[in-house]
Request: fold
Amino acid sequence: MEQPEGFKVKGKEDLVCRLKKSLCGLNQAPRQWYKKFDSFMIEHRYRRTTSDHCVFVKRFDDGEFIILLLYVDDMLIVGQNNDKISKLKKELSKSFAMKDLGPAKRILDMSISRDRKNRKLRLSQESYIEKVRTKAV
Reply:
């Protein structure tokens, strides 16, 4: 590593600068981002699941819950109360740049369909299976 142009000090050319913040594109940037996200969630009383540290759960005193699934920089939020979900999204947007894409239609190459009337949720990997099948032929 070398000192950047314009910051070299005579007699101290072998010294380098210490980064106080990880930079986008550096190997440690995703880890630093996750640590910040994890701290945010813990601060807001969400708990990481032991089986997957990218799944956060918060149970409320009234028996309701919110589950947040994190995948790289995408998230899926599931819960019973839209007001509580909206509050979480508002808090997240104060600390992180984010876009609300509305109700999820796809995640991890699975399609999501809802039948709210019959209270059913369907996940399908049909497109993934078709991709794998056509590659195998």
Remarks:
- Residues 59 and 65 are 4 Å apart (CA to CA).
- Residues 21-100 form one domain.
- The chain has a mean pLDDT of 87.
- The chain is about 30% helix and 25% strand.
